[in-house]
């Protein structure tokens, strides 16, 4: 990218690596089979995050920083619509074809791609929501709030089924915290495991059957956790803030290794079923 690479993801079939950056706002798609740039598309505004809905690059949804949702097909731009408040993250619920958008609002906006219309939003107790994720096994929707809580919702009944106070659990005896931790990262793994990253640099590992964390890992830098990923073959968790990527055992919390690049980290993604990771950074 000319200046900054903001987000990076690998397609589900593992053939394409997609990255967004600036300036000017653009998306680039790389073909791993040919080891080359497949295409580059310039966009109207910066991308907050994006998701591939298909196995390859033929269906992509972009969330922009000017509230626009942009859909791209294989040939290029397809359609754009707008959400009422500024968005920060979104997740796709495959069984119902619903996109769930969270952002600077207490509501979670739902856009149904089968009917092509907005559905009634979910009303959370939070002032604002930062991140969200959907469990691929049983479909539980979780959103992380600026009050340091994680709210869990059942998409079938549209009712809240659980509430975790992660801000309280992240404060341990040896941690120094100057402000209320907000939720900055969220990731499910399997049916019962969830990792939560806070804005004060802690990663909490939860079993969904308990409201107490199994493990609290502190990055010691006081920087917001950007991403959390699970590496199942080695039982590792990869957590990244803007300065360091830490890899640690999910059972014991013991550090496996750390990566501290020269430039700021914006995003990390794991290549499926391998030990390779892709990192989006600032120049």
Short description:
This protein has one helix at residues 166-170, and strands at residues 4-10, 16-22, 26-31, 36-42, 47-52, 60-64, 68-73, 76-82, 87-93, 98-103, 107-112, 117-123, 129-134, 141-145, 149-154, 159-165, 183-189, 193-198, 202-207, 215-218, 227-231, 236-240, 245-249, 255-259, 265-270, 277-281. It has 283 residues and is mainly beta.
Structure description:
This protein is mainly β and 283 residues long. It folds into 2 domains: 1-82, Thrombin, subunit H (Beta Barrel), CATH 2.40.10.480; 85-262, 7 Propeller (Methylamine Dehydrogenase, Chain H). 2% of the residues lie in helices and 55% in strands. The protein has 1 helix and 26 strands. The strands form 7 sheets. The protein has a 4-stranded antiparallel sheet with strand order 1-2-3-4, with no helix packed on it. Strands 5-6-7-8 form a 4-stranded antiparallel sheet, with no helix packed on it. The chain is globular and about 50 Å long. The mean pLDDT is 89. InterPro entries: Beta-prop_NOL10_N (IPR056551), NOL10/Enp2 (IPR040382), WD40/YVTN_repeat-like_dom_sf (IPR015943), WD40_repeat_dom_sf (IPR036322). It comes from Diceros bicornis minor. One of its GO terms (cellular component) is small-subunit processome. This is Nucleolar protein 10-like N-terminal domain-containing protein. Pfam families: Beta-prop_NOL10_N (PF23098).
